[in-house]
Fold:
Amino acid sequence: MKHQAPVLARFESYALFLDIDGTLSDIAPSPDGAFIDSATLQAVERLSDELGGALAVISGRKLTDIDRLIGRSAQNAAGSHGAELRKSGHLLNVSAAPVIDTNAIEKSVRDRFSGASGLLIECKPFSVALHYRANPTLAEAVEVFVDHIVRTNDGLTKVKGKMIVEIVPADVNKGSAIASFMSREPFLGRIPVFAGDDTTDEHGFETVNALEGVSIKIGDGPSCARYRFDDAAQFRQWLTRLGSARRSTD
Ligand SMILES: [Mg+2]
Structure:
């Protein structure tokens, strides 16, 4: 699909929501290998200041991972696909999120895939992620097993991303995370902008579209997003020009 970048007139009236992997960073061979370049980090900090703090990172990563990658700009963040919410540095009470027995799930995954090489099992505070980037031939078996887990356990759902399948609480997703931020200051009343690259971001796009905001898909593949960039580098180039930096060079 053709590249189509949005124009954000009156920049100060927006709220920015940003995915990390494949958006602020390139996709890395392993989750630990990802990094955000310094120009992008500086842009995120500057844009957060210019928007009065109405900027949040919305990621499948757990919060401690987000902090390692972004640092001080992640005062507002949704981790684990929205199961962990932090606003202005304070954790929000996510009463809607059921407690899931991640240890039991992790054990059943290990039992099922013992001996299989190339599967990385990541246990997060509210979810269990199965990364098979190192062995893509596991894709079908992983998905079949995760389908079995969510079918036989109440309150769980499957989230499928790039070379990753995750078991998460059923009523948690990036869309509900964005909606939660939008109901609070300093996000309240602003126009939401959300950029992401993966199928897990579609819930976020739907929420943003319903609020007549700006949804941005990075890369190819079907999406309900209204705008699109070819790749993460192209998006980051656009991002670093947003706000006052853009106005001063217009
Ligand atoms: Mg992503």
